[in-house]
Write a structure and sequence with these properties.
The protein is of the alpha/beta class. It folds into 2 domains: 28-126, Roll (Ubiquitin-like (UB roll)), CATH 3.10.20.10; 139-276, 3-Layer(aba) Sandwich (Cytidine Deaminase, domain 2), CATH 3.40.140.10. It has helices spanning 55-65, 121-127, 147-153, 156-161, 185-199, 222-231, 244-252; strands at 2-7, 20-25, 28-35, 43-50, 75-81, 87-92, 107-110, 114-115, 139-140, 165-171, 176-182, 212-216, 235-238, 256-259, 267-270, 275-276. The strands form 4 sheets. A 6-stranded mixed beta sheet has the order 5-6-3-4-7-8. Strands 11-10-12-13-14-15 form a 6-stranded mixed beta sheet, sandwiched between helices. Helix 1 (55-65) packs across helix 5 and helix 5 packs parallel to helix 6. Residues 110-120 have low confidence and may be disordered.
Length: 277
């Protein structure tokens, strides 16, 4: 979502220009709660700063990548209620047993850094769904440099504001499958994973995304690789740099990680055996 404001533009050597319109990406809080159709009040579990829109995907993606939701069978139909602006309750069925004990701390996430203070990589391993081994996809190296442009031309909100992140899923043959934008990198990825989570009614994640490539519009942090690992994504690319812990996490979970993806080059930090050169 976009907000239009009035600004004055300064250009060296010129008089201060009259007011003109400037478009900004909206940033607002979203309170995520867990609830049911019974009498009990929903239990707040997270507050995240996000760009409004696709809140159900964001909430379910967040809860899945944090190990709270296991499959769509945990959800009622409909799966959410949103009675108030900037508040959403994800509705669980009577048989669901969410790992509430995992929520030891107060989840407060920001658009810039995501959830801070994760316990350890071991904590990811303890909640990650059981993986089914699929044959490794061998991807021609020539496919990767074209992905950023496919991402860029599909970023409608970035075109308007210049200040928003994106996460995109591509098929291993290079087709763009889905793209989400948000002022927070982790939110964009949660929206993307949440959309896949809600879509695959029969094939629960992470079994449905083994033949996809994840592309991140900026740098890659530990948390983004953690979310990819939870979703079963085996190939992750970023246009920017990775952190050291992001690379360590990719190694830990057998993820091929590519960084500094450009039109004529890229760095393979781990998992080079999946890249055909």
């Amino acid at each position: 979502m976009i907000k239009t404001i009035q600004i004055k533009k300064f250009i060296p050597g010129q008089e201060l220009q009259h007011q003109q319109e400037e478009k900004l990406a909206i940033e607002e809080p979203l309170e995520i709660s867990l609830g049911s159709s019974g009498e009990e009040m929903p239990v707040p579990v997270s507050i995240t700063m996000r760009t409004p829109g696709q809140d159900p995907e964001l909430a379910t993606g967040f809860l899945f990548t944090e190990g709270i939701l296991k499959s769509v069978d945990d959800l009622q139909e409909p799966a959410f209620i949103q009675k108030e602006e900037n508040k959403i309750s994800i509705l669980l069925n009577g048989n669901a047993q969410p790992a509430i004990e995992k929520l030891k701390r107060n989840f407060y996430t920001t658009s810039s850094c995501g959830v801070c203070g994760k316990e350890s990589i071991e904590a990811i391993r303890s909640v990650r769904p059981v993986q089914i081994k699929h044959p490794d996809n061998k991807i021609p190296a020539e496919l990767f440099p074209g992905l950023p442009e496919l991402l860029r031309v599909s970023q409608t909100t970035f075109d308007a504001t210049g200040g928003i992140h994106a996460a995109a899923l591509f098929h291993v043959d290079g087709r763009l499958l889905d793209l989400k934008e948000d002022i927070g990198r982790h939110n964009a990825l949660d929206k993307l994973i949440g959309a896949a989570f809600l879509k695959f009614k029969k094939d629960a994640l992470p079994f449905s995304l083994h033949n996809t490539i994840l592309l991140l519009s900026g740098r890659a942090s530990f948390e983004l690789i953690q979310k990819a690992a939870m979703a079963g994504i085996k190939i992750v690319c970023s246009i920017g740099a990775p952190s050291s812990l992001a690379v360590e996490t990719a190694l830990e979970f057998d993820i091929t990680f590519i960084g500094f993806l450009k039109q004529n080059s890229f760095n393979i930090y781990c998992g080079a055996e999946r890249i055909l050169t």
